[in-house]
Amino acid sequence: MKGLSIYHRSRASSSLPDFIMFFITFYVHKLESARFTVIGPDQPVTAIVGEDTVLPCHLSPRISAENMEVRWFRSEFTSFVHLYQHGKDEYEQQMPDYHERTELLKASIMDGNVALRISNVRPSDEGEYRCFVQDGVFYEEAVLELTVEASGSAPQISVEGYQDGGIRMVCQLSGWYPEPEVLWRDHSGQPLSSTKTKSTDGRGLFEIKSSIIITENSNQNLSCSIRNAYFNLEKEPSTFYISELISWKEDFFLPRMSPWPVVCSVTLVISLVFISLTLFLFMLRGKHLNTISKLQADLEWRRSLSDTVNVTLDPDTAHPELVLSEDRKSVRWGDTRQRLPNNPERFDTDPCVLGCEGFTSGRHCWEVEVGDAGGWSVGVAKESVGRKGGISYSPDGGIWAVGWRWGGQFQALPSPLTPLPLSRVPSRIRVCLDCDRGQVTFIGAGDEAPIFTFPPGSVPGGRIRPWFWVGPGHPAQPVSLRHTAERGTGNQPL
User: Fold this and answer.
1) For the chain, which has fewer Cβ within 10 Å, the N-terminal or C-terminal residue?
2) pTM for the full model?
C-alpha cells in the first residue's frame, strides 16, 4: 500500500505541468473566441428578379477581414456561393449557378464589412445563406434569409370560346414570383369560383391562366386582380364589361345556346322546325328585349361595312422619315430623313402620321393591313395629341392603340402596356371607334376575332383621328384603308 501511495504521488506530480499548460491553452483559446462575432441582418433580405442585391454581413468589433477567409455558402460548405481567402477571390469550386454573378464588396473590408453582391437575381437564389469568416483556427458565421419576388404583367381578360352553355373568360398573366393568387370578383367585390392552370417560363417565373364561365343571364361586370400574400401586394384589377359580349353574342350564344333545333331538324318535319324556331324566338324576345335590340343595332353596324369612305393619310403630320404613297393610303419607313417643313402639325421625333379624317360623333370603322415585318401600331389619337418631342403611347398621351413593336411583342398600349396573345397577331386589323360611347375596339379583319377593347368612357369628347406608328424595317403599310360610318346617322368625316 505504501508503494502504491508513493506511485500515485509521483503521477500527480508529473501531470501538474501538463494540466497547467492545458488550462492556459484553453483560456487563451477562450480569449481568442471572443475577439469577433459575425453579424447578419435580423430580417430577410428581399430581392427583385433580374436586379442586383446585396447580402449584408460584418464583423463585430469592426476589425479588418483582409487576411481572413470569407466563405459564403448555402447547404454545403465545400460547394460555395463565393470564397475569399489568402487576399483574393477563389472560383474553382464555386456553384455553377453563381458563376460570374457574385462579388465580395472589398471597399470596406478593412472595417470588417464582408457583404456579398449577387447580380441578375433569379428565383432559384431564394433561401438560406451562411456568412462564414475564419481567422487561423477561430471562426464564426451568421445565417440570413433571401426572399425573391417579381411583379409581372397586369391581368388580361380575354374571351376564349363557348363552353358548358356559356362563354369561357380567361384571365392571363405572366412574369410573377412567387406564385400569386388570381381573384375573380363581381361588381360588388364578391369572389367568384374559377379554375386555374399554371406553368413556369425559362427564368422560373409563373405564367397563370384562370378561367370562369359566363352564362347569358349574367348581368354584372367582372374584374380580375392579382394578390401576392407573401409580399402583401395586390395588382390593380382588370375589368370586363358584360355589355361588350353583345357584339360577340352572335358568334357564341345564338348558334349554340340550344342545340335542339339542329337535332329536331334531323328527326322532325320542316313544319315542326319552323314552329319550334318561332316559339323560341318569341320567348327570347320577351325575356331579353333589351339585349336583342342592342344585338340588332350591332348587326346593323356590321352590315354597314359595305358603305365605305376612303381614309387617307395626312402628309402635313407625317414624320420626315416616313414615306407616303401617292394615293396617301400607305406608308413605310424611309432610308433617309426627308427635308420637310417643320410645321406645327408634323411629328418631329416619333415616326407617326395621322389620318386626314376626324370624328366627333357616331360609329366609324376602317381596316389597316399591317403585314408581318418590322414594328407598327394602329389606333386613334386626339386631334390635340403632342407632335413635338417624345410622346406617350397611352391614353394619358391621347393615344388608344395596339401594336407589334419593341422586341417582337404584340401589345395593347394602355398604361401599363398589356401583352396580347401571339397567336392572335393578324395581318389586317379593323379599328372601330364609337365616339358616342367613348370606346375603341380592335378586331381581326380576317376571322372577326376580338383583339382588344378600350372600355366605354375611355376616349373623351373632341375630334378623334386615325393614328399610325411605323418602325424601321417595315415595308409599305398600312394599305387598304377603309372607313365605315354607321348607317342612318348622317355622320361624315370632318
Assistant:
1) N
2) 0.44
Tally of CB atoms within 10 A around 429:
23
Q: Which residue has the cell 418631329?
A: 348
- 338 backbone φψ class: left, alpha, beta (φ>0; ψ -120 to 50): beta
pLDDT in tens, 357-379: 899 998 999 898 886 656 889 99
- Interatomic CA distance for residues 392 and 390, integer angstroms: 7
Sequence letter at residue 10: S
Query: How far apart are the C-alpha atoms of 413 and 395, rounded to whole Å?
Result: 8
Contact, 66 vs 87, CB < 8 A? yes
What residue ranges in 327-398 does DSSP mark as E strands? Answer: 331-333, 352-354, 363-369, 376-382
Tell me if 142 sits within 8 A of 130, measured CB to CB.
yes
> How confident is the model over 382-395, as pLDDT tens digits?
999 999 988 888 99
Helix (H, G, I), strand (E, B) or coil at 372: coil
CA atoms within 13 A on the CB side of 91: 10
What does the alpha-carbon distance between residue 40 and residue 52 come to, in Å, rounded to a whole number?
Answer: 18
> What does residue 277 show for φ and ψ, rounded to 5 degrees?
-65, -40
Nearest CA-CA partner of 375 in 243, 461, 472: 472
333 three-state secondary structure? strand
Looking at residue 301, the DSSP 8-state letter turns out to be H
Query: What does R_g of the chain's alpha carbons equal in angstroms?
Result: 35
